[in-house]
Every structure is written in structure tokens, then in C-alpha cells.
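Researcher: Good morning. I'm working through a list of sequences from a screen, and I'd like to move beyond sequence-only analysis. For each chain I'm collecting a predicted structure so we can compare shapes side by side. This is the next one on the list. No need for commentary yet; just the structure.
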Amino acid sequence: MNSNWQQIESRISRRGVLKSLAATAALHALPSSAQERSDPALIPNSPNPRWYGFNLLEYFSTDPDWMKMFPYKNDGKFREDDFRWMRDWGFNFARLPLDYRFWTNPTDPFKIDEKKVEPIDRAIRLGEKYGIHVNICMHRAPGECVLDLSDPSATGIRITKENTSVYTDPKTLNAFSRQWSYFASRYKSISNAQLSFNLLNEPAKISSSDSFSSINPAEVAKMLSAGKEDYARVATAAIQAIRQQDPKRLILSDGYPVAQDVIPQLFASKVMQSCHDYNPPQLTLHRAPWSPHSDGPLPAWPLKDQNGVVIADRSTVQKALQMWATLSEHGIPIHFGELGCYNQTPPSVVYAWFEDTLDLIGELHSGWALWNLRGSFGILDSDRKGTNYQDWHGHQLDIGLLRLLQRKMT
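Model: Good morning. C-alpha cells for this chain:
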């Protein structure tokens, strides 16, 4: 592809200029797979990229019921305003969770409609125009999607589940690798400063009979021991497919399972690893229809049980995240690709949780991205009762959360 896309607009906010200068001053070396191309600015004394931003959902899911949960139109038309406003507020990162069925023949997972890939091309161009690093993530891949763990009878969200498994079916694994080989070839002229690949959102090898409502800590422990090797094999196949087309491409893998635990089996590949932080879910996913943690009393922070006993606070979050501090010993960069609080948690509680959580992520010298920018987890149009909103070009801006996030960018 032609990388000489539109020029960056001349108007850049003072904050954006200062952050750009700071990013330039903070350049350090990524692993060799990335360092030979124009690389992301890195946090001083850390291998981690200085990425702060949001998930943008325009190609999130082909299942219409998810449109009830998040504000997107199933058309892939990523909004230029989103990129412009992120830049003007000082952010520099957009993760695009993608459903492969938008551009893939439903009866032939190897057949890709290039016309329907063009919205992703446009998002990358907008990223270049506004100085936003774009991370494309296979949120639904052939034979794997965390959304398939939802129980429609409980959530009211009807989904078309994958009928094969990337972990057990060789043809499906080849189709998954083919998707990444295609993107690697299509975008090989795009620098790592502008684009990275996130292999698979929240991977978890779980039987078709499982659902979110059945997952408890004991079952998660089983997944840790039983499925990580299989996921490492799947991820390695995709990594090899990418590097055959583009050996220098910057690649991320979510932790396993569901972006929670580090993956030592991938250390040799030197791909980045990504954590998602919704801890504790009783607070962050309170009353979210798709979550098994949707019930319970209105949460506070620190989180207490019905007897007033603290069951989650800054120290429990710190303990859960501690494993991610060990990756620097292996030269593996990290990033927090998702975090946030659903809009049924009161704003004062949300702000208190973010204060502690972003401080702890900052202690790991890692960047982060909210799920999402616009909608129930975001800073625009979140519809969170009790929030002090300000008008922003016809949108309702959570100015308190925006200012908090700006303070927490390292």
C-alpha cells in the first residue's frame, strides 16, 4: 500500500505538541522484530510503548444485538472526529477490535473481500493523519471468540457462534493464519510507529458447553494449566504467517486465559503481551448484561461484601497485576489493551477505582486503552447517572474522567 497518505492537520493542541516532543525524547529499543522500523516512543527505562487511548468499535461484531450494548453501526465507518479528539486531548493509541466475518466469505474462511477491508485501511490512514498508533485486533477469528461464552438466554444478546475450533481443527487454524498473512502482506509498507497487530482477543480454550456463567476461579485455574500450550501453538502459527510476509511487524498477544496471565511459551518469539484489567468485576462490570458479575449491591471502592468486609482494594489489584512486572526480565514489552467500568457504577466510585488502577499500571511503566471511547465505558455519551457532563460538539463529555486520564498518562 502507498504509505504517503494525507498530511497531518496543521492545528495540533499544545498538549499534543508537548506529548509528541516527550515521545520523541523517550525513544528506546524494542525487541529486534520491531526496532529496525520507525518504532513507537517508549516510556523511559522501560521496553513498553507509550500508548494511551481507546478501543474503537466500528467493526466490532456482525451480530446486531451487540449494537444495543455499544454505539456502532456495523458499517466500519471509523469516525474522523474520534481520531481528531483523541489527538487534541493528548492520546495516541486506538485499538480496533475486529470481527473477521465483515470481510470474509461466511462459507469459505479463506476468501477475503478486499473492498470490505478498506474501512480498516481508512482507520490506519486516520491514525497516520492524527498521530494515533493503530492496533488491529482479531476480536472474532475463525474458530475463536470470547463472546461465544455468552449465554443468550441470560444476556438477551443473540450471537452466531463459531462452529469449529482454532485449537482442534487444522483447517480452521490455517484460516486464522491466513487472515494474519493477508494483513501482513497488505500493510507491510506501514511502519511500526503507525501500526501493530494483536493476534486474538482474550483467548481461552473452553468447550462449547461452557459459558461465562459457569466459569469460576477453579475453572480458570484449569484453563491456565490445560489451554496455554494450545494457545501458544495457535499464536505461534499466526506469528510465523505474519513474519513470512513482514518479518519486522510489531505483534502483540493477549494473555491467556482471557488476557489475564502471562505466556512464558511465547517469550522466545519476543512478541509483546497484553493484559486486560476489569478487576474486580463486581465493580467494573456491575449490571453489565453479558457479565456473570452483573448482580449484587451498588459497588463502592474499596469493594466490600454484604458484611462490610473489604474484598477488593488497591492491594488486591496490585497483587493481581504483579505477574506482569516479571516480563521486563525477559525483554518482553507489555501493554494494557482494555480496562474500564460499565456505566451502572457511580462516577465517584469509577474515579476512585481509576485513580488506584492507573497508578498501579503506571508503576509497571505500561500504557493502557479504555473500552471504549464513545459509549457505556467511555468518556463520551456514557449515560452514567450522576456524572458532570459537558457538551462536546453535541456529545456528552465526562470531563472528570477525561481530566483524570490526562493526569495518569506517564
